[in-house]
């Protein structure tokens, strides 16, 4: 049986025919991306466009199986595409891009429009959130996937019908107050932070500018209001800047040790308030006798860093790596911490451990410190392969004629290592009605930007039956609301409503709720009156739990996207409410905000 | 910028517009293009009547960070403001504005400004933020009150 016959047998004639005509986008050619690309071409997809900004790194090779040692520093997207050619049995057309997916000149909205499906194989929240917004604007199904160690999930998302990526609130990464890092560490991770972000950066990467203004920093960041402690932090810093100036001197490393591990700690001890409830640190004792002993330690004794070093071994590594960095900085001027740069990693690992010792915190092996300092999320090839496999298999459900069936037949798949069942399916959840992203109705609007804000307001009111109580904003800039009409005579262009911006129109009467959206043409959006709700009682300070309600309460938004600037004389005459949804493109702001550009 | 931030700031504006306590004001700052920047506000908090803070409106700046409402806004009085719990920079030391203490994403602008008003007359001597006012409050109440009343004149309500 030929491969084609085999595939037909497995997929059925109908799905086979459709998949041979399907054009899909794969975002990411890393751990999951490599697996998924293989799966997609073996399923016979007609065309796969692969986007990845990155180049191949040595540390990728253990799991990103399309890459070899010789490919290091080559772009991931094109390398992956070339690698699969040897088994591209169904002659899938492959188009690689080495570019950021936020690049709107390359990837305008009209470009996304061409794909039947979008496969996410991403490693970060920001890009996932961006693709999520694109999908909501264009009503595209996204096959989302991700893994952490042995845990993973693959999940199709149907805009406005099932949970979108932003429907679940994500914790913002934990940050540590400055004082914990600098004065009162209690965990290895505090010492790692100190070694990497403070000590290393101060000595080898930053310009020696004066640091920390006592009043400029507010207490939230410092996490202390002990004036003595703050003063101490500042002088500590300034002394370090001073020390950096002598980086070329022979006794530099001795000076550093004497300062950061002995003198700074002695100074901390003087602030007795700090140690009322905490264990006191012990300043490092470092004299010629110890130094001699340390210097005798051999390379073999240090080993590769899989096991913990003793204090003396840490000192040896600290001295050696400092000397090496000292030599390099004369040539390189500035050195950034990189987990794969042995000198920088040795410096950070040993400094971490010496500080941990001082504060009676357990020491860590260099290997462990590497994974924390380098923000390494464990990636396991097997999990990636399983999840990519499910993502590809779930995509087969997307060829049903009925959209309802596609949703009904789709499941999310999770892998969990510490349960009886490694793989478990889960029903797709309905969208979170309070989701700030997908509870708004979106659409593409085109109008003449030489009109005034007043004209736009009139058009919005007559088209949607809204009254005066609406607000218009671009990002966090408010252009109009009922108490702020300074700008109504200005043109849309003057107010920044130009090609491709995302304009937020909100009804502020609380009369409307959004209807199930998904339709791009604004004139089709109808507002339904909210069912009467009981007046909520207003209470003040003790009203803690209720807050979330307030955040997401405006489910009555309209998002108008793509305000098209009329260029031809014909279009110029067009009225503001003349919408059509031809080509849309997209430009990112610095954050994950979306702008739409024609 | 996240949708959450944007929606929440719009909501803050809307809520404040529709209902705010008497004598208070709060408005977003105007950008160069004439729009209002909802991440940066100026506000005024009146001192309570029958206290040494009365007959004055104290100006505040409120900055909403990009990760608001996960993180609290930064609220400041003018630099050098005389109050035991206000840093020399003007930053206010108030537990509901501290992420590690009592900040909750549900706390709104009105609650913050009422909190600041409350703090004016009921300083917390256990978390000093500046030397002069804190020392005077604890050891020389007459001097403290004199300074506060002088300051109130500086921020006296117009008319």
Give a short summary of the structure.
The complex is a heterodimer of chains A (598) and B (159). With 598 residues, chain A is α/β, with parallel strands linked by helices. In chain A, 38% of the residues lie in helices and 14% in strands.
Q: What would you say this structure looks like, in words?
A:
Chain A has 598 residues and is an alpha/beta fold. Chain A folds into three domains: 3-170 and 379-427, NAD(P)-binding Rossmann-like Domain (Rossmann fold), CATH 3.40.50.720; 186-360, Ubiquitin activating enzymes (Uba3). Chain: B, domain 2 (Arc Repressor Mutant, subunit A), CATH 1.10.10.520; 441-533 and 552-597, Structural Genomics Hypothetical 15.5 Kd Protein In mrcA-pckA Intergenic Region, Chain A. Chain A has 21 helices and 17 strands. Chain A has an eight-stranded mixed beta sheet with strand order 3-2-1-4-5-6-7-8, with helices on both faces. Chain A has a five-stranded mixed beta sheet with strand order 9-15-12-10-11, with no helix packed on it. The radius of gyration of chain A is 29 Å and the shape is globular. Residues 208-220 and 514-598 of chain A have low confidence and may be disordered. Helix content of chain B is 33%, strand content 17%. Chain B contains four helices and four strands; from the N terminus they run H-E-E-E-E-H-H-H. In chain B, strands 1-2-3-4 form a four-stranded antiparallel beta sheet, covered by helices on one side. In chain B, strand 1 and strand 2 (36-46) form a beta hairpin. Chains A and B meet through strand 10, strand 11 and helix 20 of A and helix 1, strand 2 and helix 2 of B. Strand 11 (477-480) of chain A pairs antiparallel with strand 2 (36-46) of chain B.
């Amino acid at each position: 049986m030929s491969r084609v016959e085999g595939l037909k047998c497995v997929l059925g004639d109908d799905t086979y025919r459709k998949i041979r005509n399907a054009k899909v986008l794969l975002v990411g050619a890393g751990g999951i991306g490599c697996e998924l690309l293989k799966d997609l071409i073996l399923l016979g997809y007609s065309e796969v466009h692969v986007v990845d900004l990155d180049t191949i790194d040595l540390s990728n090779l253990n799991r990103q199986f399309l890459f070899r040692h010789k490919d290091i520093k080559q772009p991931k997207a094109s390398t992956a595409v070339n690698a699969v050619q040897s088994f591209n049995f169904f002659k899938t057309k492959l188009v690689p891009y080495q570019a950021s997916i936020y690049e709107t000149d390359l990837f305008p909205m009209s470009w996304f429009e061409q794909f039947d499906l979008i496969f996410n194989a991403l490693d970060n929240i920001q890009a996932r959130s961006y693709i999520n917004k694109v999908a909501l604007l264009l009503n595209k199904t996204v096959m989302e996937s991700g893994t952490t160690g042995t845990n993973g999930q693959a999940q199709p998302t149907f805009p406005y019908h099932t949970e979108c990526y932003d429907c679940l609130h994500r914790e913002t990464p934990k940050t540590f107050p400055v004082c914990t890092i600098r004065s009162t560490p209690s965990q290895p991770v505090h010492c790692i932070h100190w070694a990497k972000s403070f000590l290393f950066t101060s000595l080898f990467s930053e310009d020696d500018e004066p640091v920390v203004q006592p009043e400029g920093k507010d207490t939230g960041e410092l996490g202390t209001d002990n004036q003595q402690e703050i003063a101490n932090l500042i002088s500590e810093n300034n002394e370090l800047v001073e020390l950096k100036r002598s980086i070329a001197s022979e006794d530099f490393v001795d000076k550093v040790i004497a300062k950061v591990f002995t003198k700074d700690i002695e100074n901390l001890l003087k602030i007795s308030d700090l140690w009322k409830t905490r264990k006191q640190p012990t300043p490092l004792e470092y004299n010629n006798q110890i130094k001699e002993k340390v210097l005798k330690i051999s390379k073999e004794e240090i080993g590769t860093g899989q096991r913990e070093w003793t204090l003396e071994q840490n000192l040896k590594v600290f001295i050696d790596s400092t000397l090496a960095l000292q030599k390099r900085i004369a040539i390189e001027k500035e050195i950034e911490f990189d987990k794969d740069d042995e000198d920088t990693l040795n410096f950070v690992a040993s400094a971490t451990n010496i500080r941990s010792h001082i504060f009676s915190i357990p020491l860590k092996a260099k290997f462990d410190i590497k994974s924390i300092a380098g923000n390494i999320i464990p990636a396991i090839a097997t999990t990636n392969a399983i999840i990519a496999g499910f993502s590809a298999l779930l995509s087969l459900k997307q060829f049903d004629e009925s959209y309802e069936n596609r949703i009904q037949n789709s499941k999310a798949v999770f892998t969990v290592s510490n349960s009886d069942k490694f793989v478990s399916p889960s029903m797709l959840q309905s969208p979170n009605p309070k989701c700030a992203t997908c509870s708004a109705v979106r659409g593409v609007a085109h109008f003449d930007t030489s009109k005034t804000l007043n004209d736009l307001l009139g058009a919005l009111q007559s088209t949607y039956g809204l009254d005066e109580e609406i607000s218009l904003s671009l990002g966090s800039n408010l252009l109009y609301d009922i108490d702020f009409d300074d700008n109504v005579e200005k043109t849309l262009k003057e107010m920044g409503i130009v090609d491709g911006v995302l304009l937020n129109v909100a009804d502020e009467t609380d009369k409307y709720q959004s209807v199930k959206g998904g339709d791009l043409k604004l004139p089709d959006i109808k507002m339904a009156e909210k069912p009467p709700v009981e007046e909520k009682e207003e209470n003040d300070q003790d009203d803690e739990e209720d807050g979330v309600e307030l955040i997401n309460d405006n489910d009555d938004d309209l998002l108008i996207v793509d305000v098209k600037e009329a260029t031809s004389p014909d279009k110029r005459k067009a009225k503001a409410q003349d919408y059509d949804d031809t080509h849309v493109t997209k430009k990112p702001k610095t954050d994950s905000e979306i702008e739409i550009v024609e | 910028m996240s949708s959450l931030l944007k929606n929440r700031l719009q909501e803050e504006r809307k809520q404040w517009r529709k209902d705010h306590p008497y004598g208070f004001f709060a408005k977003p700052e105007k950008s160069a293009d004439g729009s209002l920047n909802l991440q940066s506000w100026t506000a005024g908090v009146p001192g309570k009547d029958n206290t040494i803070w009365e007959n004055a409106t104290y100006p505040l700046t409120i900055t909403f960070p990009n990760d608001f409402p996960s993180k609290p806004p930064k609220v400041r009085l003018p630099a050098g403001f005389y109050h035991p719990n206000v840093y020399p920079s003007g930053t206010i030391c108030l537990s509901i504005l501290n992420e590690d203490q009592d900040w909750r994403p549900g706390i709104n602008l009105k609650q913050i400004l009422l909190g600041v008003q409350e703090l004016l007359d009921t300083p917390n001597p256990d978390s000093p933020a500046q030397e002069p006012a804190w020392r005077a409050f604890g050891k020389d109440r007459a001097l403290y009150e004199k300074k506060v009343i002088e300051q109130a004149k500086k921020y006296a309500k117009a008319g």
